[in-house]
Amino acid sequence: MTTPTYRNPVLDADWSDPDVVRVGDDFYLTASSFGRAPGLPLLHSRDLVNWTLVGHALDRLEPAEEFERPRHDCGVWAPSLRYHDERFWIFWGDPDQGIFQVNAPEIRGPWTRPHLLKAGKGLIDPCPLWDDETGEAYLVHAWAKSRSGIKNRLTGHRMHPDGTALLDEGKVIVDADRIPGWFTLEGPKLYQHDGWYWILAPAGSVETGWQGAFRSRGFFGPYEEKIVLEQKDTDVNGPHQGGWVRTATGEDWFLHFQQRGAYGRVVHLQPMRWGPDGWPVLGDDGAPVAVHEMPDLPPQPPAAPATDDDFPGGRYGRQWQWTANPGDGWATQHSGDGLRLTCVRSADAHDLRKLPSVLTQRLPGAPRTVEVELRLDSDEPGARAGLAVLGDAFGWIGLQRGTDGTAHLVHRFAEAVADAERDAAHPRLAPEGRARLRIEIGADARCRFSADTGDGFRPSGPVFAATPWRWVGALLGLFALAPTGQGHAGAATFNRFRISPP
């Protein structure tokens, strides 16, 4: 009988900075969502390998006025997910505002509004711990040098058990400047095990770093350290930053990310055990595994976060996020199928990176073909709608209404250093104001655009290499917009969005 195995990554898209918790027989995961809304995705699994997206904990980012426009690398950084006192808790750091928390009685909510636990610049990657034996509660966090001038250290606090306040000014409990060879220590996750306080924390930067473990008999230290996961001779660069979880049968596992350029931070699952010296051993003796025996859990059907969407009733699935807090009337519900997006008027119509009204989902981490049907329901000259690949460079293909009332298929792009888009191919007529749009995503996130305006798919322009933002993988996006002006500018309807193997 063949032993069932899984292959990494178990989440092959940008589920950045994952953290995980078990409640009964269920596992839950959250991840960074930065400036997109809704934020704080919530994933569910029964076997740690097959995951589905079940919701979000954050409807809108606060304060709302700060996120009316895209802030792609800001917002929700590196959340921690915990279960305590029959409630789910998520803590995260906004590098420009401070440490927030939300909580809920069930994973699907209702979630509280964000509570600012500690205000300040550069406070990131918080993680709480409730000591059930003493009744004490603690919090540890890291620092973003870009905002605070401080990095490579972890600060600890005593926390009120209700999670509403910190009880002291904080103390540096790990200063990695004092550890030879260590730099950019961040992303701490706090636990208790075998009479020790444990901090699992990455260092060495996202592209090339490693996973560290720290232990102390007291929360405030002193801590000793050990590297417990690193690339070694594998092709998994920078394996680090994630969470430890124990199954009901006592197996230990560690979920972490790997930075993969335009694909963002994909998620790997590592076996974990405790060595004879009392330190955790991750992966294959400290090296990440590519294939491994499944966790000893009841078999589950294959599953992955949803991507396809028919937009029933004009509603979009939970896999979609806006590039900022959504505005009223951007998407209209109706009686049929199809996503009806209002052509939002904007002075930034020349640059998708500046638009809050782009509806996005994650770029898949393996070669895929993306297709969607589009109808431009606008007579406004300059109104346009399309399918985009969005990063610090972007490309899109879609329809635009000409000054003479005709619809044209257009394909445009902008380099990272450009402040406006330009044509990637010559416009051509789309007589019915309809098109089927396609992006073929190949190796290294190289994207080939094509469209069918009634005479079959025809390739358009050169291959476009997708690029990430600073911390965020590239995104797929749907949008409808119009130049500035007065009155309603019409709409565009998208249907049959599909992501499929090539």
From TrEMBL:
Name of the featured protein: Glycoside hydrolase 43 family protein
Domain of life where this protein originates: Bacteria
The entry's keywords: Glycosidase, Hydrolase
Claim: Nucleotide-binding is one of the keywords in the record: no
SUPFAM superfamilies assigned: Arabinanase/levansucrase/invertase (SSF75005), Concanavalin A-like lectins/glucanases (SSF49899)
InterPro entries: ConA-like_dom_sf (IPR013320), GH43_C2 (IPR041542), Glyco_hydro_43 (IPR006710), Glyco_hydro_beta-prop_sf (IPR023296), Glycosyl_Hydrlase_43 (IPR051795)
One term of GO molecular function: hydrolase activity
Membership in a protein family: Belongs to the glycosyl hydrolase 43 family.
Domain called Beta-xylosidase C-terminal Concanavalin A-like: residue spans: 309-499
